Amino acid sequence: MSLHLQNIDHIVNGVPHISGIDLALEPGSFNVLLGRTLAGKTTLMRLMAGLEPPTRGKIIMDGKDVTNVSVRKRNVSMVYQQFINYPSLTVYDNIASPLKLAKQPKSDIDKRVREVAEMLHIEQLLNRYPQELSGGQQQRTAMGRALIKDADLILFDEPLVNLDYKLREELRDELRDLFKARNCIAVYATTEPNEALALGGNTAVLHEGKLLQYGPTEQVYREPNGRFSAEMFSEPPINIVPGRLTDNEITFDQTLHFPCDDKLKRLEPGDYDFGVRASHLTLQPQRADDLALDVHVDVAEISGSETFLHVHHERFPLVLHLAGIHQFSVNEPLKVYFPTHQLYAFDKQGHTVHIPVRQGGAAHG
Amino acid sequence: MAEITLKGLAHSYEKTPKGASDYAIRQMDHVWHQGGAYALLGPSGCGKSTLLNIISGLLEPSEGDVLFDGQRVNELPPEERNIAQVFQFPVIYDTMTVFDNLAFPLRNMSTPEYRVKPKVLEVADILELTPLLNRKAKNLTADEKQKVSMGRGLVRDDVTAILFDEPLTVIDPQLKWKLRRKLKEIHERFNITMIYVTHDQLEASTFADKIAVMYEGQVVQFGTPRELFERPAHTFVGYFIGSPGMNFMAVEFRDNQVMFGSQPLPVNEAMERAVADASNSVEITSNNIKLGIRPEFIAISSSPSADSVPIQVTSVQDLGTYSLLTFKLNEQTFKARLPEGHSPVGETAFARFDDAHVALYIDEYLVEAGHE
């Protein structure tokens, strides 16, 4: 099945929730909708499912216009943030319920329930009731119900957000593998850039009801088409420093001058926003042309194996993403090194005008 | 100011607990030193909320003592313990102004008004709430409300410790780091014992100088964020800290080698001796001997070397700042982290485990090789 959203607008009480979205999803594709809260992810999924019709535009499934076809007549499954199961039914009957509704033969149902339960590692819980399960097990049950019928379209609305991160890690891995073998279209909404990267497939970046960019996940990450797309798709967010490009040099903050990359010289002189990834800033110089900056520490956010170091220069803040555990005191003075050959450039309309060459060459084909 | 000591502490919700599994907190001794920034970290159901309620006085422990500066406080109700608490959801009076909210705990203790005002202004200044002092609390954003909650604890000079229970849950992801910074700053300035309870390793490691990791009712490690990462004292810490967590191999000493199933592992001499000792020890009856290695300390290469093992690569995921390589060794799945720009590898490759970071676990606890 293919799914094509054509020039969709959705307006609720005079407020646009979705504006001019055009998006074509291929059969068998895994698609991530990435955006902050209220970017329009849930609304877009509701329109895809047919829970409500869009204000304007068409929804085409396999070449057929289904814009006004209700959800009941579409072959769609949905998994929500909250763990939604029938409390009075066992895990077995919860998972079996879509097939029972479809009046399938008992022996087929039994076979499918066991297959799905095994895939989701809940085969030993089939006789339990939802309230006897942990959050992760409840969400696996809800997923089982979504996966058991051969839906053309499966929608996941931030399904892991209420689980602790270890479970998220596991389920995310499993989900990716589950969909390798399927032919349906999967759509997965998340606010987390790292989740999008971990899931792979394609990513659509949404912001304020608009589609900023759609393409293979890695490509969207490496080649954002604009400043917003770059900011939405990085955690910690890409650093943006306003500067001026003259013939041979770039100036930050009117005082920091440095010679610019040959490729950047092709740009028209003028004002730009320069982007540098948090992981490309370092505490030791990597190259002779690195720019040394005197900064003060705001806070070092430490997650198990890495450190997000927030600092501020006189006029602009920066975030560094460092491997390993590094502790710093608030307001500690520090030198950080800014890689002048790793700059993205955005024009003042926010369009990408320059993308740096990848470090270490094309590592993964 | 307080040092909080837990002595022989245990708690069961059962009237007559039968075995270890009936205990939410298993027998433990622990000291939270005066002025420390601590975190209590663990998955849901590990007992951390029970422990927090025992410290704050909401719950009386069934065994052992809670001491504040050496004084037993088991039966003291929360209001007599001089402890402030900040919860997941801000606890403030919506109809009052920010000023009155901050002044409330002081006025409640009949503090003279001439002393209330300077204290409120001081705390408001630190929390960057000064411009909002005359606003009604209900008009504040979630992060501003949470700062008011914290402020209510900080105005009181008699507060000896502040307990935080997942205080950043309702804060927008983009604003969290600012509040984390504020919390650090407050700790450095006030010299108050702070205990931060969370299931989130980032919250814990960012806030705390030392973290107590709880698992099945016990503190399995009390250490700095770096220690938890580099020397997990228990396999659970290895698994829980880091993303993905540590890889483990069940090993034995056979044919004069350290064997992981049918795969001999090239380890250094001290480790080889330690595994041999454990395998032959009469005291160790469990045969539960594991080696742990974090994904960060596995080097992958296309060609073999003296100390590498052959592996089957199942996938390489580009995660932007690094790549995650999944491989099979002895039928078991492993994860390795490759730096950005790492050269590509084929389906068959070679893994080398960094000697300094291979850890030995006997019955799930770390044993230092060469220090016995």
UniProtKB/TrEMBL annotation, chain A:
UniProt-listed Pfam families: ABC_tran
InterPro entries: AAA+_ATPase, ABC_transporter-like_ATP-bd, ABC_transpr_FbpC, ABC_transpr_MalK/UgpC-like, Mo/tungstate-bd_C_term_dom, NA-bd_OB-fold, P-loop_NTPase
Family annotation (PROSITE patterns): ABC_TRANSPORTER_2
Keywords, sorted A to Z: ATP-binding, Cell membrane, Membrane, Nucleotide-binding, Transport
Domain of life the protein comes from: Bacteria
Any one GO MF annotation of this record: ATP binding
Stored Gene3D superfamilies: 2.40.50.100, Nucleic acid-binding proteins, P-loop containing nucleotide triphosphate hydrolases
Domain ABC transporter: 3-233
Transport keyword on record: yes
Listed PANTHER family: MALTODEXTRIN IMPORT ATP-BINDING PROTEIN MSMX, OSMOPROTECTIVE COMPOUNDS UPTAKE ATP-BINDING PROTEIN GGTA
Name listed for the protein in its UniProt record: ABC transporter ATP-binding protein
From TrEMBL, chain B:
SUPFAM superfamilies: MOP-like, P-loop containing nucleoside triphosphate hydrolases
Family matches, as InterPro entries: AAA+_ATPase, ABC_transporter-like_ATP-bd, ABC_transpr_FbpC, ABC_transpr_MalK/UgpC-like, Mo/tungstate-bd_C_term_dom, NA-bd_OB-fold, P-loop_NTPase, Transp-assoc_OB_typ2
Transmembrane regions listed in the UniProt entry: none
Protein name: ABC transporter ATP-binding protein
One GO MF term: ATP binding
Pfam family for this entry, one: TOBE_2
Keyword Membrane: yes
Keyword Manganese found: no
Source organism (scientific name): Vreelandella neptunia
Keywords in alphabetical order: ATP-binding, Cell membrane, Membrane, Nucleotide-binding, Transport
Residue span, ABC transporter domain: 4-241
Top-level taxon of the source organism: Bacteria
Signal sequence residues: none
